[in-house]
Amino acid sequence: MSDFNTLSESVISGNFRLAKDLTQKMIDGGTNPIQIINEGLIAGMNVVAVRFKAGDMYVPEVMMSAKAMSVGIELVKPLIASADIPTTGKIVIGTVSGDMHDIGKNLVIMMLESVGFNVVDLGVDVKPEAFVEAVKEHQPQIIGLSALLTTTMLNMKETLVALEAAGVREKVKVIVGGAPVTQAFCDQIGADGYAEDAAVASDLCKKLVS
Ligand code: B1M
Fold first, then answer.
1. In angstroms, what is the span from residue 148 Cα to ligand 1's centroid?
2. In terms of residue numbers, what domain contains 29?
3. ipTM of model
């Protein structure tokens, strides 16, 4: 098995200590940092995304894999000029106003980062105006709204209204997700896409920026 495969396997199995050691060994051995990311760490996470989507891996395992990938990325990051880091696009994401749930959102972020998105996380309980400001400041291609409560999902519509009122709605695609959210709700409020889980969210975002 090549070093890249062994590193990928450590990500897939969520063995973050092994991922850290292997990444450090490859750095010390002079392996190209971009290859460590693409052919080792992200390659492993791509397998995880497929297995998660198929129901062959569960949330705790995906969290461990994401941690293993992040530990490796943190070691490699300082070696790469920021211009060289593969970037799929920029997304601003947050849990909408009144809602404190962030486990699902954080999982979505990990998946997006694993496929090369630059993610700006606004956190939880994010007011519509804060999303508007973030669009102006960060100029993302996509805004991601998460909600776990049937009450707070209504604030997704409020956020869309605020983006429209500020004249920035046309500048971004808006995707929505979270347990009570459905495709029908997405269509009803005029969002651009709905993702039922983190793997679908990452596929959807890739499609929206391509
Ligand atoms: Co809350 N809670 N909670 N809670 N909580 C639910 C959501 C609830 C269904 C539990 C229940 O009653 N059965 C219920 C909502 C009922 C409803 O609205 N119909 C509920 C309630 C009522 C509440 C409180 C009001 C309880 C109270 O205080 N009386 C309160 C509200 C606080 C607030 O937000 N203002 C509250 C508080 C909490 C905790 C703080 C204790 C904790 C949150 C901790 C945290 O997030 N840091 C919590 C938890 C953990 C849950 C449950 C048990 C688990 C949620 C979770 O993390 N799931 C939840 C019950 C449940 O969902 N079965 C519940 C795992 C996570 C990986 O899944 O978040 O669905 P999920 O994310 C998925 C997808 O939805 C999707 O991808 C993710 C990964 O696959 N996804 C997106 C999510 N966001 C996305 C965004 C996207 C795309 C996909 O694009 C942008």
1. 5
2. 4-79
3. 0.98
